[in-house]
Design goal:
There is one protein chain. The chain contains 3 helices and no strands. By secondary structure, the protein is mainly α. The protein has a domain at 38-121.
């Protein structure tokens, strides 16, 4: 029995060799990095420095147009208020879940109680025979061996004689 041939692809699959600890650099394709021209580097540096100075000037003018302490204190107050609202929201959600759980328990108890009432008040249905739990062991049949001669006249064994004769035995007191 031969295995079906898999169509070959234009490139062969190369699996790693576990015996080599360090990979061979010659097997990897190398890319030549393009060197950025000196003029471009100077212009990029100048642009970055100019952007940083502009942002610092804006930040220096900010206190004269805006009360920075008020801004920070308002931000902190809003943060605390938000965390308080989050805590209250989680607490309310926990309360709703607790009420839903109590309602579910009440419905389960109501259903269980009604089913017990229905079973208790319903007329007994005719039994289809004893189930696995309702099976009772039948009394072992008595062996009709004769009593030894010394017990024949004993009046305390009268119940045994009545069972041998097919009677149910003396009533229990």
């Amino acid at each position: 029995m031969s295995l079906p041939r898999i169509p070959s692809s234009p490139r062969n699959l190369q699996l790693p060799n576990p015996s080599l600890v360090t990979p061979n650099r010659s097997s990897r394709p190398t890319r030549r990095r393009r060197r950025i021209s000196r003029l471009r580097q100077v212009l990029m540096g100048l642009l970055l420095v100019t952007g940083g100075i502009a942002l610092l000037l804006v930040l220096l003018r900010l206190p004269s147009q805006l009360d920075t302490v008020l801004l920070v204190s308002t931000a902190i107050a809003n943060l605390i208020k938000g965390l308080t609202h989050l805590g209250l929201g989680l607490l309310q959600l926990a309360g709703v879940l607790a009420v839903a759980l109590v309602a579910l328990v009440a419905l389960v108890l109501l259903g269980a109680g009604l089913s017990r009432w229905m079973r208790a008040l319903a007329p007994d249905a005719p039994s289809k025979g004893p189930g696995p739990r309702g099976q009772r062991r039948a009394a072992a049949p008595l062996d009709p061996q004769p009593l030894p001669p010394e017990f024949e006249g004993d009046p305390s064994l009268q119940w045994l004689r009545s069972l041998r004769n097919g009677d149910t035995g003396p009533p229990f007191r």
